[in-house]
Amino acid sequence: MSQHAYEQQTPSVRAAELAQIVQGELVGNPDVVLNTLAPIEAGGQGALTFIRSQPFAKFWAESSCDAALVTRGVEISNHDPEHKALIFVDDADIAVVRILEMIDPGVATPGDGVHPSATIDPGASVDPSARIGPGCVIMRGASVGAGSVLMANVFIGGGSRIGGECLLHPGVVIGDRCVLGDRCRVFANTVIGADGFGYLPGNESRGAIKVPQIGSVEIGDDVEIGACSTIDRAKFGVTRIGNRTKIDNQVHIGHNCVIGNDVLLCGRTTLGGSATIGDRTLVGGAVVLNDQASVGKDVRIAGGSIVLDSIEDNQTVLGVPAMPSRIALANAAAQRSLAQFCRKVEKSLKKLDPDFKPPST
Description:
Layout: E1 8-14, H1 15-21, E2 25-28, E3 33-37, E4 47-51, H2 54-57, E5 67-71, E6 85-89, H3 92-103, E7 113-114, E8 119-120, E9 125-126, E10 131-132, E11 137-138, E12 143-144, E13 149-150, E14 155-156, E15 161-162, E16 167-168, E17 173-174, E18 179-180, E19 185-186, E20 191-194, E21 199-200, E22 209-210, E23 216-219, E24 224-225, E25 230-232, E26 238-241, E27 246-247, E28 252-253, E29 258-259, E30 264-265, E31 270-271, E32 276-277, E33 282-283, E34 288-289, E35 294-295, E36 300-301, E37 306-307, E38 310-311, E39 316-318, E40 323-324, H4 325-336, H5 338-352
Parallel strand pairs: 3-4, 4-5, 5-6, 7-10, 8-11, 9-12, 10-13, 11-14, 12-15, 13-16, 14-17, 15-18, 16-19, 17-20, 18-23, 19-24, 20-25, 23-26, 24-27, 25-28, 26-29, 27-30, 28-31, 29-32, 30-33, 31-34, 32-35, 33-36, 34-37, 35-38, 36-39
Antiparallel strand pairs: 1-3, 2-6, 21-22, 39-40
């Protein structure tokens, strides 16, 4: 095994065999033996790396990796075909995914059946093929579908429904009356179905008044939700997450939000109440959507942006407030030269009016 902690140990495979597995074209030594995955700049003997695009190709000449998966069309110079191997594929990223899927050891899950320390209400329904780990609690009227796995200390609230083949990591909380579709993955300490933040502001004669949150959360099929994320139940009606949407760690989704299919939400994104996001939209890290903000389909939102109102379909936006990328980049370029521009203006004004005094800073 390599001494580098960043290398992922894999079963040994010859370069020629790997080329067949990923349906790639081999250029170089077919007998190179590969047993690790590593970054191109940090790998060692036996390491396989990948080159997805031309900017990464320049690192190959100095790389200590023995082989690389290369996206077709990328030109590689200074290749040593006698000692190293290149495997050209349609998409290096997809080829890496296939390899990782093959060698993924998975996670340690509970054994068959229900752990003796779990508490299941007699009025709950748990499929016999489901696996329920230690310390789990399943309340009255809840159901857990076939093949689903609840790891340690998972809580399923009353009337909630967990679909088939789901995996809920330790500490996940599913509140009352929530629904998860099939094949969902929810990572540790995520809370689905907490009350939405609904209050009537206080005044001189009384404190804030809590608005009851009586709605639910409905999550589609094949959804993944990262660790320590929160999805609030609706005030009334439903907070909805579409099929195949992927949510990163530490994301907050407010009450009555509606998120479409195949959406990607990066970490620390926050959605205010009743915000909507259309299908296939990509949201960068630490993005904020204002209450009732509306984002269309196939939108790209750069990290750190704040969306105040609406974004139409097929837009790429960034900034505070979020605006079309071309405008935002032009504004940023103008800001970088603003101080120099102001100094030139002051000098010009002084020439025209010797008594001119610039505003104090």
